[in-house]
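To the team - coenzyme A complex, inputs and output below.
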Amino acid sequence: MVELLKPAEAHLEELTAIDKVSSSLPWSKNLFSKDFNNPAAHYLVAVESGKVLGFAGFWLLQDEMNVVNIAVLPEERRKGLGEKLLKGILDLGVSLGADFATLEVRAGNIPAQALYGKFGFHMIAMRKKYYADNGEDAVVMIKNQLKQ
Ligand SMILES: CC(C)(COP(=O)(O)OP(=O)(O)OC[C@H]1O[C@@H](n2cnc3c(N)ncnc32)[C@H](O)[C@@H]1OP(=O)(O)O)[C@@H](O)C(=O)NCCC(=O)NCCS
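Output:
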């Protein structure tokens, strides 16, 4: 059974490895470790039999939750884990006082945009040449009225 847990130091290695295979601008272990100690940052890991299968995190800025990252191990994708993690952080954000959620996603990242669209996020802006590695545009998305 997959459980959603708050990450512990013991999860850091696997979480960083998932980011490394999921992102073209991955975070170092040190950066994740620092963010775990950021009072505005909140993360969940999806764990099965002690193995980390995915994670998601957001920063809470007043009543806005900004989804910073969500990633699932490549071999565990398309099994509902992305949805489980996104629902988990949205519920956590609401419990902490968030009224709306925002995020940036690469213009070419169709799987992630489809996931966000399924949860009621819609595009509000494009940030041109936002990503440093390849100059790709970012799509800015929002989900309002989280409490409904
Ligand atoms: C985006 C990501 C987290 C989705 O995780 P997942 O566990 O595969 O997602 P789920 O199985 O829960 O799928 C939920 C929905 O996402 C969308 N989706 C997921 N993968 C998709 C794909 N390859 N193509 C199109 N839609 C996709 C679909 O709408 C799907 O719903 P459906 O199954 O009813 O069609 C995963 O693809 C991933 O880790 N990608 C790399 C990291 C990344 O891009 N993160 C986003 C940063 S902004």
